[in-house]
Amino acid sequence: MLAFILMRNLKWMLPLLTFIGFVYVPYYVIRQMLVGRNASRNPVYMRSGQYGSGPIRRPVPRMTRKQWREHKRGTLATKRASTQLAELSGSWIAAAIAAVFCAVATGVIGLRNGSVDALAIAPFGWITVLGFSIAAVILGLGKLWEGRDGDPLNRRIVLAGSGGLLGALGYMVFNHLMIPVEPNVTRVLIDAELPQSLYDSASMPRLSAWMLHFAILMAVVRWWRLTDPMRSRRLSLWSVAVVVVADWLIQQLIPIPQPWGMMVAGTAVIAVQIAATWESDDDYTAAVAQGIVR
Q1: Cα separations (Å) of 214 from 163, 168, 196?
Q2: Which of 14, 63, 124, 273 satisfies CB 3.0 to 4.6 Å to 103 for a cystine?
C-alpha cells in the first residue's frame, strides 16, 4: 500500500523534497541559530535561609533519578554558542575518524580474497564520504535540538529534506568514482516493475531514486535520539541493527546498489553515536554518594 502511494505521487513529491532540501532546511537552521535557546526552567533549591535572629539550615530536597536527568538536560540549553561550536567541531572530527575506520574494516573483510585495485577500493571511499556526510548533518541538527523538546514531525521534515540532498551527493560521488555495479537492482519482498521516473531502461536508479531513498531513511529513523547527550549508552548495537534493517526495508521500495547502501547506513549510525556528545552516569553516581539524589 505504501509503495503504491509513493509511486502514484512521485510527480509532486520529488519537487517538494527538492524544495525542502534547498529552501526549508537552510531556513530552519538559520532560524534556530537566530532564535537561540531559552533558559532552562529548573527548580531552585534553597540550601540555607535566615529566619528570626539566626541562620537556619534547610535540608536540600533529594531528587529522583528522573528529576536529576531533567535537571541535567536543562543545563544543556544554557550552553554558550562558542561551547556548542567547539563540541560540534570535535564531533565532526570524531565522526570522520569513525567513518574511515568503518570503511577500512569493511574493506579488509570485503577484499581479503580479491584483488586490491582502484575500482575495488572505490566503493569503500564512497562509503566514507557519504557516511561521514550523513553523520555530519545529523550531528549538526542534533546540536540545534540539544537540551529541548521539539515537534517530531517538524524534525522528520527537516531530516527528509537533508536526506534528499545527501542522496544527490551520494549519486554524484558514486558516478564520479565509476563504481562497478550489476546492471539490475533487485528487491526481495516486492516483485513489481520499477517506475520509469526513478529508474532507467537497465533498472539502474536515477538521481530521483537516490534522493527519495535517503530522504525516507533520514525521515523514518529518530536520529535526534542517537545524538541525545542523555542517552543511556554511547554506542547501541541495537540502534545500529535498527537503522540497517530500516535501510533494507526501504530497499524493497526504492532500491539502490547494495550492499553499499546498507553499509553507508551502518557507517553513519556508528559514527553518529561515537561522535555525539554523551553525558555519562558519573555525575549521577557522585550525586547519589553526596545524598543529592535518592
Answers
A1: 5, 9, 19
A2: 124
Amino acid 80: pLDDT = 81
C-alpha cell at 293: 539524589
CA 49 to chain centroid: 47
- Per-residue pLDDT of 161-173, as tens digits, reads 999 999 999 999 9
Give dist(CA 198, CA 246) in Å, integer.
20
CA–CA separation, 221 and 236 (whole Å): 14
Write a three-state SS string for the chain.
CHHHHHHHCHHHHHHHHHHHHHHHHHHHHHHHHHHCCCCCCCCCCCCEEEECCEEEECCCCCECHHHHHHHHHHHHCCCCHHHHHHHHHHHHHHHHHHHHHHHHHHHHHHCCCCCCCHHHHHHHHHHHHHHHHHHHHHHHHHHHHCCCCCCHHHHHHHHHHHHHHHHHHHHHHHHHCCCCCCCCCCCCCCCCCCCCCCECCCCCECHHHHHHHHHHHHHHCCHHHHCCCCCCCCCCHHHHHHHHHHHHHHHHHCCCCCCHHHHHHHHHHHHHHHHCCCCCCHHHHHHHHCCCEC
**pLDDT tens readout for residues 38-88:** 444 444 333 344 444 445 455 556 666 666 667 677 777 677 888 888 889
Q: How many CB atoms lie within 10 A of CB 246?
A: 17
Task: Delimit the domains of the chain by residue range.
Answer: 72-289
Single pTM value for the model: 0.76
**Residue 48: predicted pLDDT:** 40
Residue 118, Cβ density class (10 Å: 0-12 exposed, 13-18 middle, ≥19 buried): exposed
